[in-house]
Specification:
Blueprint (H helix, E strand, L loop, with lengths): L14 H11 L4 H29 L1 H29 L4 H4 L18 H16 L4 H17 L5 H21 L1
Helix pairs in contact: 2-3, 2-5, 2-6, 3-5, 5-6, 5-7
Length: 178
């Protein structure tokens, strides 16, 4: 089921495009589609706001510090990815290739980098640094969010990989400052 109709522009058949096409085709299977839509929706912010709230309320002073750290880092990440999208302006894959179907409505017009993945990586690494026991849930969830962006047709694999690298760098820098 296509939500957004593509505006086709020429796209050379690269290895990345072939991978994007193959991953996007996984979305034709209803259980896969439902799983990755749910991960994507939670990755919009719902999961992260809930986690910050729980940490702040039940984590004592350390939980409040972790939630504050996550929130401040999130603000930096949001500003950075919006600025990058405005400068780079890479069209989304479903706009460039007829074979890629957008299975969710994107939050903005451009593809690079993946904001969902950038936030997921940054928030996960910061939260895990404060509370390592959270790794068992945050790492799989972050992988689901990252994969969802390609499977749902709104990002190229390189958008997601770059977001992982940028998110890890920002988390590392922010943790070195604490």
């Amino acid at each position: 089921m296509s939500i957004v109709k593509p505006t086709l522009l020429p796209e050379p058949a690269t290895g990345e495009l072939r991978l994007a096409l193959a991953l996007n085709q996984l979305g034709v299977h209803r259980p896969v589609l439902l799983l990755f839509r749910a991960a994507s929706r939670l990755g919009d912010g719902v999961f992260w706001y809930a986690l910050m709230s729980v940490l702040a309320v039940v984590g004592g002073a350390e939980g409040l510090a972790a939630a504050t750290h996550m929130a401040l880092t999130g603000l930096v990440v949001a500003g950075l990815y919006r600025a990058m999208k405005g400068v780079i302006r890479r069209p989304r894959p479903f706009r460039r290739h007829a074979g890629i179907v957008a299975r969710v409505r994107p939050l903005d017009e451009f593809s690079f980098p993946s904001g969902h993945t950038l936030h997921a990586v940054t928030f996960s690494l910061v939260a895990i640094a404060w509370f390592p026991f959270l790794a068992w849930i945050l790492l799989p969830f972050t992988l689901l969010v990252a994969a969802s962006r390609v499977i749902l047709g709104v990002h190229y694999p390189s958008d997601v990989l770059a977001a992982c690298a940028i998110g890890a760098a920002i988390a590392g820098i922010s943790l070195s400052l604490v």
